[in-house]
Design brief:
The chain has 436 residues and is α/β, with parallel strands linked by helices. The chain folds into 3 domains: 76 residues, no CATH class; 185 residues, Rossmann fold; 110 residues, Adenine-specific Methyltransferase, Domain 2 (Adenine-specific Methyltransferase, domain 2, Orthogonal Bundle). Helix content is 44%, strand content 17%. The chain has 15 helices and 11 strands. Strands 1, 2, 5, 6, 7, 8, 9, 10 and 11 form a 9-stranded mixed sheet that branches. It is globular. The two termini are 33 Å apart.
């Protein structure tokens, strides 16, 4: 695979599985979508006070809103209002809008939740290295990611893993609400969708519109949902309602940034107003539909777990591959390597001991892939143990000013270890990453 070829796409696999016989609208679909949704809105308003029915109708309306299924729209056009109302009430409609979202390379992406530090732009490189490891080690049957985050890196891996027969995929994080979100979408997608729909439906009942129009209205509603979400976190209830609120709050923050307190196990998200963000509930409902399918590819298991526990479990397992995407060290190439000792970064993970992680990685019998910012100590570590060390120039943007950095991808392949430090010019074009 060259850098000019399309990367393996999870959405492409899903599209082949679910929509292979469907005709996709190519011209005039936006007008047809709008016309059909306007019709459903009139029907929904007549049922707005019927709690259970209105939620299901809003879920179906949201799925229709993003559909490009020509046969679906032709069927709806032929329905009477009574027939269309029954269709909107039906909880068993199979509308999976994979064709509406592109994911065919390093510049196109379709993410489950917005998360700073996502790995969508690393897809080609990660897949190339993963293919090499799996080709060299056909005995690998298990894949682990103990820093799950926004699902970006495992999303890059998933299509390759399935192609090479690796179906046992173990994904973990220390953030309870984050893991709960994945679990609920995997196991209870319909209920998550209804709780998402309840956010807009409740707002309509209160104010006669589905979402806020101004910054002040948006902030007030955001803070109300955040208050309810925090109550669920404090009660330690792992349920679909908590997952829906997490998704809504995440979509209305700046760059998906959140602060997770490791001691209290609470998340704090900060409101960021955008006229498009407040209208995202239908999009989130579509994401639940699609990622429910993705999360049930292979044998994916989500858990709340510290990385130390995961590495202890796989320490002597040569049939395991682990991808590590820990909190990044602060990029300061000109400073000494001592700053690798710890870092205070984001998501509530303070004073993370990177030396300890690298030592565990070195002493383990399993295979590793590892992301971080460049640091002299990490590079010296890779040279000493003959691990591949790939550098990539990036620019982090916060507002208008950009800050240069260098990210790295390190690979430990126990089957064939060779020293190989690669400059980014061989693999990447410089790109802009937006982080809060």
């Amino acid at each position: 695979m060259t850098k000019n070829q399309k990367t393996l796409s999870v959405l492409f696999i899903l599209l082949f599985m679910t929509n292979s016989n469907k005709r996709v609208l190519k011209k005039g679909f936006k007008k047809l979508q709008l016309k059909t949704v306007e019709r459903s809105c009139l029907i929904l308003r007549k049922n707005i006070d019927r709690k259970t029915i209105s939620l299901q109708m809003y879920v179906n309306q949201s799925l229709i809103q993003y559909s490009r299924d020509e046969d679906l729209f032709l069927d709806i056009q032929q329905m009477t209002d009574e027939e269309y109302e029954q269709f909107l009430k039906n909880k068993d409609n199979n509308i999976v809008n994979v064709e509406s979202f592109k994911d065919d390379g390093d510049t196109s992406r379709f993410v489950f939740i917005i998360y700073s530090g996502g790995k969508s732009n690393h897809k080609t490189m990660q897949q190339e290295e993963l293919i090499k490891i799996l080709t060299n080690n056909p005995n690998i049957t298990k894949y682990f990611e103990p820093f799950l985050g926004g699902f970006g890196s495992v999303y890059n891996s998933l299509s390759v893993l399935l192609k090479y027969g690796v179906k046992d995929i173990f994904l973990s994080d220390t953030n309870n609400s984050l893991v709960n979100c994945y679990r609920q979408v995997q196991r209870n997608p319909k209920i998550v969708q209804k709780w998402l729909a309840s956010i807009d439906i409740e707002y309509f009942r209160l104010y006669g519109k589905y979402y806020p129009d101004t910054k002040d209205e948006s902030k007030e509603w955001f803070e109300e949902i955040h208050r309810r979400f925090t109550e669920l976190e404090k009660s330690k209830k792992m349920n679909p309602k908590r997952a829906a609120y997490f998704m809504y709050l995440n979509s209305n923050t700046q760059g998906g940034m959140l602060n997770f307190n490791m001691k209290t196990k609470l998340n704090k998200m900060h409101h960021s107003f955008c006229s498009k963000k407040v209208k995202r509930v239908p999009l989130l409902i579509n994401k639940v539909e699609i990622f429910h399918k993705i999360f049930n590819m292979g044998n994916i298991k989500f858990s709340v777990c510290r990385y130390e526990t995961v590495l202890k479990k796989v320490n002597n397992d040569t049939n395991s591959l682990v991808l590590l995407d820990p909190p990044y060290v602060k990029y300061e190439e000109e400073k000494t390597s001592d700053n690798i000792l710890s870092c205070s970064y984001n998501y509530g993970i303070n004073n993370f001991n990177h030396r300890q992680l690298l030592t565990k990685m070195k002493n383990s019998q399993c295979h590793f892939m590892y992301y971080n910012n460049h640091n002299p100590y990490i590079e010296e570590f890779s040279q000493k143990h003959s691990y591949k060390y790939i550098k990539k120039d990036v620019i982090y943007r916060n507002g208008k000013e950009g800050k240069k950095s260098v990210e790295i991808f390190m690979v430990k392949d126990n089957s064939k270890v060779t020293s190989n430090i690669v400059n980014n010019v061989d693999f990447f074009k410089e790109e802009v990453q937006k982080v809060s």
